Automatic annotation (TrEMBL):
This is Nucleotide sugar dehydrogenase. Pfam families: UDPG_MGDP_dh, UDPG_MGDP_dh_C, UDPG_MGDP_dh_N. Belongs to the UDP-glucose/GDP-mannose dehydrogenase family. Keywords: NAD, Oxidoreductase. InterPro entries: 6-PGluconate_DH-like_C_sf, NAD(P)-bd_dom_sf, UDP-Glc/GDP-Man, UDP-Glc/GDP-Man_DH_C, UDP-Glc/GDP-Man_DH_C_sf, UDP-Glc/GDP-Man_DH_dimer, UDP-Glc/GDP-Man_DH_N, UDP_ManNAc/GlcNAc_DH. Residues 311-404 form the UDP-glucose/GDP-mannose dehydrogenase C-terminal domain. It comes from the Bacteria. GO terms for biological process: polysaccharide biosynthetic process. It comes from Neoroseomonas marina. The keyword NAD applies. GO terms for molecular function: NAD binding; oxidoreductase activity, acting on the CH-CH group of donors, NAD or NADP as acceptor; oxidoreductase activity, acting on the CH-OH group of donors, NAD or NADP as acceptor. Coiled coil: none annotated.
Amino acid sequence: MPDTGLLPEALFQPADAGGRVVVIGLGYVGRPLALEAAASGFEVTGFDLDPVAVAACGETIRATSRARDLPPASTWLICVPTPLDAEGRPDLSAVAAALETCRAHAPHGALVCLVSTCQPGATNGLCRRILERYGRQVGRDIFLAVSPERENPGDPMGGPRRIPRLLGAPDPVSLARARAFWERITDRVITVSAPEVAECAKLLENTYRLVNVALMDELHRAFAAFGVATREVVAAAATKPFGFQPFWPGLGAGGHCIPVDPAYLQMEARRAGAAASLLDAALAANRGRPARVLGAVAQAMDGRLAGRRIRVAGVTYKPGVADLRGAAPVALLQGLSACGVDVSWCDPLIREVPEDLARWPRAATFAEGVPEAIVLGTPHRDFDLARLAEAAPLVFDPFGVLPQDPGGRVRVV
Ligand SMILES: NC(=O)c1ccc[n+]([C@@H]2O[C@H](COP(=O)([O-])OP(=O)(O)OC[C@H]3O[C@@H](n4cnc5c(N)ncnc54)[C@H](O)[C@@H]3O)[C@@H](O)[C@H]2O)c1
């Protein structure tokens, strides 16, 4: 342990020995974490600028939108969004704002842990810079760590306790403080030698997914051209007991992580003069996938799309999740609409229709009114795929999951 000028026991007993925790950002990641911390015996306060997110906590934990109501907690978790801006560049403004909240309200000796996905170097760079403004020193007056979230939305095997947590910190005392905290919340904590290792590992996980998803989408077109069923090919390859992990074709990876995180990695790689061309290719292939499916639909419909009644069945970014962020089916709807298609959509998971979907009529079921064509946007578990395959004269399947009909109405695209 380095000579920090503090007694070791003081390091492990911050002012708030009772274990108060503030979770900044109460969205998909922050709220479950806040609940798990509360269930693990911490006194949790959630903080979110959005009163709707605060209200969504109900009675489960104390939550507020007013920074002045925040307690002098010993642990502060940053769970705010890290999206891309309009130009596709990483937008760290929410992380910077959350760090300012920590800097202003976290007491001497508190631990700040970055949970949001950031670029390599963010913890030792941006986070440290903001926390050390006005004379505090990380590792002495305030402690800092990074433990990127690895949740897989919609996965019943997920949740903050079950998914192993990577943890890195700039100094051993911060690491020990963070480890003691996370070990109460999570079954398995894996410490790494530096924050950059945890940051890079998180980005590697999602970059690996993106590159392989993009590869499968591209090969799917090739296999379809050979008249071979992609899913059978993948299942056959997956019988190899080593060196292969199956990925399945689709309409393109959506959501807030897979198509976003690699851009954070690439930004730093570019800065270091080490940009990966394969990453640019995968990002472009993934972004372009809905347009390629649209092209295949147009071709199958003799190039005449204007006025045709086409339905997109399933519009969320993945099956079983009511989340539209970065959803490829929405990009497809936009593309079809721009071609003058009389487009509609259905999705059993969407309760309240957000503004960007309200532009197009919603159908109660994929079969309602018998559209001229259906494109499978998201293969929700609730969909009866055998019925869907017969619900319109033409049914387009970017996933290769529909039963093939002898009449040729199902087109793998
Ligand atoms: N959603 C996932 O499944 C998932 C999985 C792994 C990693 N992540 C990462 O976790 C982070 C959070 O993602 P999310 O999906 O929970 O985002 P989200 O958009 O669902 O929630 C973020 C919340 O933070 C709030 N917020 C924004 N700025 C704030 C500020 N300055 N102070 C207080 N609150 C603020 C927003 O109002 C919002 O409620 C991101 O970096 C994301 O990439 C998400």
